[in-house]
Amino acid sequence: MLSWRIGDSGPINRWHPGDEPPWPLVMHVAAGGYMSMKAHNQAFERLAWNVLMRRYIGEEVELVLGSFPVCTIEMMDCTMARAMALAFPGQLEKVAAIVAPDVPKDMEGNALMKRMMRPRRVEKDGRLVWWDEPERVERLGRYCDQDVEAETAIDLRLAALTPRERHLFERAEHVNDRGIKLDRQLATRAIELVGVATIKANRRMKELTGGAVKTVGQTAKIVEFLRARNVPCSSMKKGDHDELITYSDLVGDPVAKAVVELRRDGYKSSTAKFPAMLRCASEVDDRMRRLLVYHGASTGRKAGRLIQPQNFPRVDPDRDLPTVLTIIKLLLSREPVEVVHDILEAIYGEVMPWMAKLLRACLIAEDGKEFVGGDLSNIEGRVNAWMGGEQWKLLAFLAYDQGLGPDLYKLAYSRAFGVDVDAVDKIMRQIGKVMELALGYQGSVGAFLSMVNTYQIKLADIVEVVLATTGRNQLDATAGKFTKAQSFGLPEHWWVALKVVVDNWRLANPRIVQSWWDRQDAAIDAVANPGQLITLCDGKLAYMSTGKVLLARGPSGKILNYWNPRIIEQPATVEVLDEDGDVLDVLPEDDALAMPDGTILGRRKHGKRSVAFDGTNSKTKKWGTRFMYGGFQCENDVQMTSREVIFEAADRIEAAGYNLVLDVHDELLSENPEGFGSPEEFERLMSANPAWLPGCPLAAAAWRDKRYTK
Prior knowledge:
The protein is α+β, with helices and mostly antiparallel strands. It is built from 26 helices and 23 strands. The strands form eight sheets. A six-stranded antiparallel β-sheet has the order 13-14-15-16-19-20, with helices on one face. The protein has a four-stranded antiparallel β-sheet with strand order 21-22-12-23. A three-stranded antiparallel β-sheet has the order 8-7-11, with helices on one face. Strand 13 (534-536) and strand 14 form a beta hairpin. Helix 18 packs across helix 23 (492-508). The chain is globular, with a radius of gyration of 28 Å. It starts with a strand and ends in a 5-residue tail after the last strand.
């Protein structure tokens, strides 16, 4: 059925299949008009009208009008997009509860709708029996009517998108409608290979544990097995694997080590994306659509849907790509999948870890077309240094881009530990890389651990190097801060080594550290003085509170919203992250500013005062109280600005004739006729510096291929 109204207070009308066409609505659509149609999650209504309603009323309408009127993206005004652009939740029931509590979404009707959308049963002859009793249909109609009331109320109470944001919304919808093609054969064969690898991994797990654990997915039994072997284990989360492997090595238990490795390598949740790809791909043209949602994150970045393309593992062109191409060649051959598995296992060892790196390659260009794609190099690190005024780092980026300076990760370790850059070895460089990627947003030991696990670096190697290159005085002073409550279960000397890494990175980046405290102070000043503009970071950022919302303006003019801001009294805080990089807790760290040698890292004027606000918890997805601190604000500012950089690049790229089909954080992917454009042009268009970002060095790397392999 369809419920609809014309105007903000007109009567709500209802249409059912078999009824006369809803002529007033048909004529309204036919008249067109920019943003003349309003809906929450407009893509649903737009596509339902263009596809489903055409099936039901198309012939009758065409007899009168000559053609069926189509809802275009430009005609649609989406209240969900407007809500998310203001940092409200996207779901209708959640945003209604906040901005229009007097007109709530009908959740009882919502439950009925979810029941009625599925058949009650399937008869032996294949006939579907639905939940379509007249009283249920009538109740469903009242639910649809109430949705119209709720959407109307939300529309009246939410600000419109700015012209710039409206442009970005429209482009996001066009990209979503284009979609991207799936190599159905490769995805199907990958599923078969995962099945073979899983059977063999389960068999091996059963052998290793003497039948105590029968599959790699039996988490509780694996934990129980390890405990029985005196390996301290409370869970098998992603971040626990490397620590358990290291501990098993330390106590000399090869069986425990093999069990953990098998679990880590044989239970890849990312491989569930292969079946999801097949479910998402159109049976008409094999293209997957609606993979991204505009302003899905409060910072303005898009969020992934369906197959979550943001979570595809990166493929290193030197280390990984040759192996990935070999796997593709074998899978697309006529060899039985069991034979392919055995060949790969003989050459590369465990097969399952490689399957996750095959996900990107399942996306292909149409016949006669090819991809041109590229990504910005360490855009967040560059923007963070630019905002904070960390001049040595900006000069280092510039020199490296010009081929005149050292590797940035080597330089990071060199500056942090006082080691000559030419003496930085492979492990030191890895430490430098993790430091740069993990610590820029006030992250401490937890953030560093999370990134170590992401890159599968051995903690024991890091600890050994750090302890060997750190003076005894610093080690002893750092050990004095050790508490089990914040140790993440690490042995004391391991925690000390990682805390030294954190402290040394902060010493090497004093301007960035100071910018954390400056942000925290600026937010407090703004909330304490509504209507007053508080600028910081040499005018690149500004805060102002209206009393109802704290506004944070970035250098491009983009504004972030923090609702119901208020000042609270609590200790200075720093985040503790879990293995997925999500905030577990916000704990006091009173010594965050003081280094073992007495150096003061940054100064703040408001001490134990901070700002609380209402927002969506990234872990629970519930609306409630959240707390601001410098690192959190820094991350939001940097990601907002990085988003603006990549979106301006997308404008230039589309203006040059490239057809974007996917953008994932710092990456852009276009699909064009073979021979169109060039990677060199793509790089130039991506890395052009916006006028509002003077002095921030940008660099891009681009490629051309038939597959999304880079």
